[in-house]
Amino acid sequence: LPVASFDCVVFGATGDLTMRKLLAALYHRYRDRQFPDTSRIIAVARSALETDGFRMRAEAALRQHVSPANLDEETLAAFLALVHYRQVDALSDEGWEALVATLDERPGQVRPFYLATSPELYGPICQRLARHGGFSALSRVVLEKPIGHDLASARAINMAVGEVLPESQIFRIDHYLGKETVQNLLALRFANPIFERLWNADVIDHVQITVSEVVGAEGRVGYYDRSGALRDMVQNHMLQLLCLLAMESPISLDADAVRDEKLKVLRALRRFEPHEINSFSVRGQYVAGAAEGRPVPGYLADIGSTERSMTETFVALKAQVNSWRWAGVPFYLRTGKRLPRKMSEIVVQFRRPPFSVFPRDQHDLQPNRLLIRLQPEEGMRLEMMTKEPGPGGLHLRPTGLDISFEKTFGQRYPDAYERLLMDVVRGNPTLFMRRDEVEAAWDWVEPVLHAWAERPEAPRPYVAGSWGPTAAIAMIERDGRTWYEGI
Ligand code: BG6
């Protein structure tokens, strides 16, 4: 459904996220005629640029990040005409009056402010916007993850922003929630009674969530070296996936009803004691190896350092949800850079048959598994044992019931940011994180951060192009289980 006309102000407009994701997302929505021509995209950054100069950069970014099939010259020119640039310094009073004057030219517009900057600037930017009269009842502030660096800094940011805006106007984005398959988790769980009946510790043996990437830290070294995989991926994306998998049925799809249930899961996560950290977590850092068939340097070379760095580029964790539904069912999480493939996948592994009528030496009964693939090629697969065809006797083998969403629906899957940006304009916060959720997620992650900080040993090395340190394999194998290497 098309949205109302808006003035979307993007802070951090010359940065990586705007250039790679936000402009392309807005372009696609515009091309699909999802917002009116009267809208404006007001790019804001510290650089001394004019609108023409910024449009040239934006055009280059769009030519790089939008597929040629979707890039027609006429639409591109019309889209760029909606883009304006204002030079503003987040940490001084320079530029704010001119920015607010631009916004006041059209008082009735919905006003999303997208803060694609470092999180330390979220508070100062919101406070200055408030002081200069930039907020209206139609304003919404979008905060990119990570919200802060730890629980205390997340709280400070939430306080600073909360002083000038009510929670209903604050949209904390986690782009994983905008992915089609992630939303499909809600459909899978709450529109299909056959699964919901099986969704508990009686039937499920364990759950695995893997988010692997081929890319290294290149390009975002400054940010990544201060962050690491636990802050960059686990505290937000992976915990959100865990919440959607583990939560109870919400009473409706209202934003707060869904977020209340996710919050309960975060609060039910068993907290790690410092002495358990090595049994329940593994951190790794890649060394030189290969990515997609070509040699690549290690993390230290990527960040241009000759000393050691304690930043983890890989993390594996064994999480547990303390509830009746999930008691005794481990949730194994792993994520890393420079792994063999880009893949985000959830594996729900069911218990083995309690007794087998098939002779053990001839039949290795595999457990049923439900595989939920977020990317690439969004889909689901239910693995079952079936009889091999033929008259030669009863031979079993695992086969899959497959749903490929792209083949089934035959359409382009919009990028997560497209969906989420339009939700901001509509004022629908269901797929955004509430303040207490973000804080609860930090609260769970923090003991791991502390325990790691206190230990002298560096992250375990793994060769770029491998599935991470062997300790991560040992962690799950100690429980008699193995990582599933993808469909
Ligand atoms: C971002 C992280 O939030 O998610 C990046 O900061 C990561 O480090 C990215 O590469 C992965 O997103 P996606 O959509 O490509 O899986």
From TrEMBL:
Binding annotation for NADP(+): 46, 145
Protein name per Swiss-Prot or TrEMBL: Glucose-6-phosphate 1-dehydrogenase
EC number(s)? 1.1.1.49
SUPFAM superfamilies, per database record:
Glyceraldehyde-3-phosphate dehydrogenase-like, C-terminal domain, NAD(P)-binding Rossmann-fold domains
Q: What is the reaction catalyzed? A: D-glucose 6-phosphate + NADP(+) = 6-phospho-D-glucono-1,5-lactone + NADPH + H(+)
Q: For binding substrate, which residues are annotated in this chain's numbering?
A: 175, 179, 213, 232, 337, 342
One Pfam match, by short name? G6PD_C
Q: Residues in the active site?
A: 237 (proton acceptor)
State which pathway it belongs to.
Carbohydrate degradation; pentose phosphate pathway; D-ribulose 5-phosphate from D-glucose 6-phosphate (oxidative stage): step 1/3
**One of the GO BP terms on file:** pentose-phosphate shunt, oxidative branch
Q: What does this protein do?
A: Catalyzes the oxidation of glucose 6-phosphate to 6-phosphogluconolactone.
Q: Domain named Glucose-6-phosphate dehydrogenase C-terminal: which ranges? A: 186-483
- Identify the enzyme class: oxidoreductase
Keyword Cytoplasm tagged: no
Record domain Glucose-6-phosphate dehydrogenase NAD-binding: where: 9-184
Annotated keywords: Carbohydrate metabolism, Glucose metabolism, NADP, Oxidoreductase
Which Gene Ontology molecular function entries are recorded, alphabetically?
Answer: glucose-6-phosphate dehydrogenase activity; NADP binding
Which family would the database say this protein is a member of? Belongs to the glucose-6-phosphate dehydrogenase family.
Domain of life per record: Bacteria
For this record, the Gene Ontology CC terms, alphabetical, are: cytosol
